[in-house]
Amino acid sequence: MPPASDIVKVAIEWPGANAQLIEIDQKKPLASIVREVCDGFLTVMRSSSSLIDLCVSVCVLQNRGDIKNGSILRLAISPMRAARQLLERIQSHGIDARLEALKELAKLSADPSFATEFINMEGLATLARLVESGTQYESYIPLFGEMLAFTLTAFLELMDHGIISWDLISVSFIKQIAAYVNQPMVDVSILQRSLAILESMVLNSHSLYQRVAQETTVTQLITHPQVSNQEIQTYAIALINALFLKTPEDRRHHIIRVNRPVKAEMAHQLYVLQVLTFNLLEERMMTKMDPNDQTQRDIIFELRRIAFDGDSDPSGTEKRKAIYIKDYKMLGFTNPVNPAIDFTQTPPGMLALDNMLYLAKVHQDTYIRIVLENCSREDKHECPFGRSAIELTRMLCDILQVGELPNEGCNDFHPMFFTHERAWEEFFCVCIQLLNKTWKEMRATAEDFNKVMTVVREQITRALAMKPPSLEQLRVKLRSLSYSEVLRLRQSERMSQDDFHWSQRIQPEILELIKQQRLSRLCEGSCFRKLGNRRRQEKFWFCRLSLNHKVLHYGDLDESPQGEVPFELLTDTIPVSDIKAVLTGKDCPHMKEKSALKQNKEVLELAFSILYDPDEALNFVATNKYEYCIWTDGVSALLGKELGSDLTRSDLDTLMSMEMKLRLLDLENIAIPEAPPPVPKEPSTYNFTYNYG
């Protein structure tokens, strides 16, 4: 008599027959067990399938040790026979029979044993031929769309077993699948399967990656994520992601490398892809938690279990409830009696709970450290994890504009979100660690919660503005943006802003001062060279502005004067009201003459002309750059135009700096003399000097 542990009682089912309860001795050879089972169903099996096929099916069982008392074992046709029958029905001419066969094939293809037999019978090649020749039957075969959907489903399931390589797929098959994706109007189920097949091609074969990239473009694919069907959005975004991947290793891990600058059109497509990817979170963001839903409450309980390792519950309902309330309070929930209430506000809704669970499971050490760190602090300085995670999720949704439509012409995408297939969750994990770090740096209390969140928002937006290429780079940039650094940046920006407002207030005064200096200098007048036809210096001439700024006086001189020239000697005049404009350099009339271009560069840089009515010009060549700037600025001031010379910019910077320094001096109760103090007399001797020699 075998030990009781070796005997298991199971129910055996067979289509068309009643279930039978039998005992199986696990110590017996597998062949003997199969014979006993078959003897019980011999009559039924003779009418439906061969004993050999059944034995082959049962003998492949490798997990007989997992059979427990009360298990239900279902006998079925062997994979070999099932594959043969389905292949015959698929190749039949009856439309209804073929449809039913394809529908059954879509279900059975997930089984590895069946898939192996079906592929060995060239079944996969048969499905590929059906797809390749699909367009010629589409117009007149009834139920063609439904048949094609089941065909593509079975094809994808069979290929996912990895029995044969994707590289064996024909070019015509790829073109046909790409055609379904590129069509503006195609059945939803066909589009879903086609997108999934193309993604698998890209992820599993470098050569097919190149072929798929030729057959379809991001511009064509970008319309699919904008539909309302969430499955199509997911498949389309996954395919677009895969098409951007640069290496087979990256493609296997859904990682996009956007290391080089991209063109504006591509940048906009990446931005749209980023927005649509985040919009997939909108449903969870706007889903409220049902406080009475035990399944959802179990997720919160899992957060507690991971944090406090509560595998064994204390005895007694009241005692257990008190411990749960204490633990939920340490987790930082606002409602420790029923923390599910914390997730009833939208946004962020259930999305916050999803983020917390991801952190707890994927980054368990970090999660436990954050929770336990705050449990061990003084009550007034503990950071409430639950409340912080919920508010942080809401903040991130707002920063990344989750749920909003893409803006036309916007290219503001973040490369780091294309470097991880769970980029949103990883982004949250980085930011929750930042929040905990900032809370400690600020030595915050519960009353400072909103202040901390404001600082964290500023840290995140500043880091995102730097466009970090990866999540690791984001960590580095956030690490450098400590609370003290944020305060320093705020102060620096505030001072710059104050300086700007201050300069805007005093700049008009300084410009007016410069303008008056220029006009005063024109009133003193200047001597200029007078050029002959051969560009030789022949005589001097002098020009000055009248004291009332209404007339320009000028006239020839035999030699360069030593001081001001009286107005009586300047016989020619030009009313300022007649002046039209001032020209410089090559635009001057006297620089456009035939031989003028032979003048050296210095002459061109010092030349300017005053145009006045009726179509006359007074031509100048200044003696140096300073005189050139003085006169061009002075004439511009007379015309009411902006002073644009280099000298004006230099003077403006110098005077602005001096004025600001003077105004910042503490001169209260100090008398400033109207006149400069006298220069002291020279000393009688210089014997106080030291000879370094």
From TrEMBL:
Function noted in UniProt: Involved in cytoskeletal rearrangements required for phagocytosis of apoptotic cells and cell motility. Acts in association with DOCK1 and CRK. Was initially proposed to be required in complex with DOCK1 to activate Rac Rho small GTPases. May enhance the guanine nucleotide exchange factor (GEF) activity of DOCK1.
GO biological process: actin filament organization; apoptotic process; cell motility; phagocytosis
Positions of the ELMO domain: 295-464
Record carries keyword NADP: no
Protein name, as recorded: Engulfment and cell motility 2
Single annotated GO MF: SH3 domain binding
Keyword terms: Apoptosis, Phagocytosis, SH3-binding
Domain of life of the native organism: Eukaryota
